[in-house]
Write a structure and sequence with these properties.
This protein is mainly beta and 123 residues long. It is 0% helix and 54% strand. A hairpin with a 5-residue loop joins strand 3 (42-50) and strand 4 (56-63). The radius of gyration is 14 Å and the shape is elongated. The two termini are 16 Å apart.
Amino acid sequence: MAIGRTQWAIAEGYIPGTSHGPAPAMTSHEAACLLNAGERDAHVEIMVYFTDRDPVGPYRALVPARRTVHLRFNELKDPEEIPRDTPYASIITSDEPIVVQHTRLDSRQAENALLSTIAYSEA
């Protein structure tokens, strides 16, 4: 039995524009941690939504069967980079059931903050 869903929403997104500490480990970032516990590869698309402009995407990723992939939103480049210091939200769609967890590392100061939540699943 596969676990997970095929559509997920992360309503809160923000990539800090600055970082404190050695890169890439301490670079401020948002990440979607994608788990595919199933027997078939999952083809994933991400659409990014903003408060004051049209959505961007899809960004595409492959999550192999019985594997996990951690996508840093600040490393997504195609079709364009996600702007720093800008609120956004995202919809993640997969052709196979997956589990999505959202994480942010905010290292704008030496006292780092780490936030992690499970995304909202619809279908």
